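Model: Ready when you are.
Researcher: Fold this.
Model:
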Amino acid sequence: KYKGITINLFGGLIIFFILVALRLPVLFNADQLLGADEGIAAYQILDLLRGGPLFFYYDVGRYFGIVNGLAAIPFFWIFGIGGLAFKLPPILFYALYVLSTYWIVRQVRPQAALTVVLLMIFTSPSIFWITATNWGVCLICLLGNLIFLSFIKVNETAGSNVLYTFLLGFFVGFAIYTFTYSIVFIGSIII
């Protein structure tokens, strides 16, 4: 049991560090490459940290929660306040997304799992930029995979395992809070 957890933790860390290494030019220039939406979100999170009013959605849009911004707080403590700290959470979420995709592919087609991981690490420029921008896209992709994995486990146990059923409900609710339009994905799983 612990061997599998250790291997997955080690694999996730390796994926994260490879992704960070590939995005070093963006991370070194993070302050200059911080987009307008990211800047507003970072400002609101910093205002919250400084004792500002509690909020659950950004001012720029009421359809996505602040989880992606809150995930930057530990990086603010480690690296200081700046663009670098705000751009690291999507890379972490993408690393976890790659790892969770590996779990799914390993169940469906085990011989293709490593190839999928490599294709997701060495990806197209558009995905490269999305994974270096803290818009919450990587988090919602990760939650989509976790919903799918939970759904598979609930089906395998015919709903008899309360933990898997709880996790499915939790991930669905968390995904809807994180990005309201994820309800379309959730609806497609139900169908």
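Researcher: Now this one.
Model:
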Amino acid sequence: ANREYHVSRQLGLLASAFAAFCLILVGEDLLQFFEASGNAYATLLLLSAGHVLFVGAGLHSVHLSMSGNLKLTMLLQLCGFAVFLSLLFIFVPSHGALGAAGAFLATNVLLSLTGIWALWRTSKIKVLDPLTALTLIGLSLPIVAIGINPEYRSIGSIVMILVLTAVAVSERNLLLAIFKEIRRQVFSKRA
């Protein structure tokens, strides 16, 4: 179970961080295409950072549910929803969509931390070692910083590239095995 959890977490983290990096690069142009205005770019990046954190912490809710901890999963999700609603009532009136994105980010941080704790408590799966924590911070903090101040785009992008490269290099065997399996699946269906 520990291996499967780690594999899905790493793949999700790489994919979501890469998608967030692409949004950093072309997000403003994409939003202009859809005629978005105001603080749409900052909102988009805060939502992306929340997603990177949540996926990078792992799909703990799914794992907890599949391992017979449905009541705990439901309790964590209900508490997270209550926190989210509370934060929406606090931040949306004064900050609009940006406040909603901030509420989403804060709720995902809370759900990730409580989910990591619950997973460790019930299954003894240790998700948040120091390297994983640094990786999550190194990928999400630049996204938030760029969302707050787009002038950080260059340095934030460099930090994300460095962290993504380090993760990809450290997980190269896993990534190669996945690509080989995908290639095998694609070419075996053609035959």
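Researcher: Key takeaway?
Model: Residues 70-123 form the longest helix (54 residues).
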